[in-house]
Design brief:
By secondary structure, the protein is of the alpha+beta class. It is built from 7 helices and 9 strands; from the N terminus they run E-H-E-H-H-H-E-E-E-E-E-H-E-H-E-H. It has one domain: Alpha-Beta Complex (Lambda Exonuclease, Chain A).
C-alpha cells in the first residue's frame, strides 16, 4: 500500500533484531496502551519499553499456546480468506508507525486482506474487545486499508489448545471471523494522534 516499508526481519527467526526494530516505531501493540483501552498496560509502559535496555517480557502459558497456534490458524484461515500471497511475521512501517501482521494476503491489482489472530478462553459475546479494536484499527491506518478481519479461536481451556498443537491442526468450524471496518477519516485521526504522541516524546527520530 501507499508508502509502506516492508522490513526484511522475521519476528520468529530473528527475534532480537525484530525487537530492536520495533522499539524504533510506535506499534499496533503499543496503541491500546496509549489510548487507555488495554487492561494490561499503559502509556508509561510503552515509554519504558522504547527507552529501556530492551528484552522481552516473560511469556505466560496463554501467550505461549496462542503464539504456537498461530501457524495452524493461518493454515485454516487461508482456506477462508481466499487467494493471495501470504505475508506473516514481517514488520511493516509508515512514518513512525508500524506493526507485524499475523496474516496479510497480497493480491496484485486488487485489495489486500489483513487478518489478526486472537486466541482466548473467554467468550467475546459477539464483539471484538475494545483493546483489540484499537490494535487492528491502528494496523489498518498504517497499511491504508478499510477493514481488518479478526480471526478468533475460543478455547475451552489452554489445555485444549495444547491438544490442538499435539494434533497439528485446528478443527474445522472453530474459527470465528469478525470484520472491523475503519473509515478513511478515522484512519486519518488515528494517524495524526499517533504521530503527535511519538513526536512529543521522541521528536522526529
Amino acid at each position: 500500500m501507499n508508502d509502506v516499508t516492508l522490513h526484511p526481519i522475521n519476528a520468529d527467526r530473528d527475534r532480537e533484531a525484530w525487537l530492536a526494530l520495533r522499539r524504533k516505531f510506535l506499534s499496533a501493540t503499543d496503541w491500546p496502551k496509549i489510548t487507555g483501552s488495554s487492561p494490561w498496560a499503559g502509556a508509561s509502559d510503552v515509554l519504558e519499553d522504547k527507552r529501556g535496555p530492551g528484552g522481552e517480557a516473560v511469556w505466560t502459558l496463554p501467550m505461549r499456546v496462542g503464539k504456537a497456534l498461530e501457524p495452524l490458524i493461518v493454515d485454516r484461515a487461508l482456506a477462508l480468506l481466499g487467494p493471495g500471497e501470504p505475508v506473516t511475521q514481517a514488520f511493516l512501517s509508515r512514518g513512525h508507525l508500524g506493526f507485524t501482521p499475523d496474516l496479510l494476503l497480497v493480491r496484485e491489482g486488487a485489495d489486500w486482506t489483513l487478518a489478526e489472530i486472537k486466541v482466548s478462553v473467554r467468550p467475546w459475546n459477539g464483539e471484538v474487545p475494545e483493546a483489540y479494536q484499537d490494535q487492528v484499527k491502528f494496523q489498518a491506518t498504517v497499511l491504508g486499508v478499510g477493514e481488518v478481519q479478526v480471526l478468533h479461536l475460543e478455547l475451552a481451556s489452554w489445555q485444549e489448545g495444547q491438544a490442538f498443537l499435539a494434533a497439528g491442526s485446528v478443527p474445522p468450524g472453530r474459527l470465528r471471523v469478525y470484520r472491523v471496518r475503519v473509515a478513511k477519516a478515522e484512519r486519518g485521526r488515528i494517524e495524526r494522534k499517533a504521530e503527535a504522541w511519538w513526536t512529543s516524546h521522541f521528536g522526529d527520530c
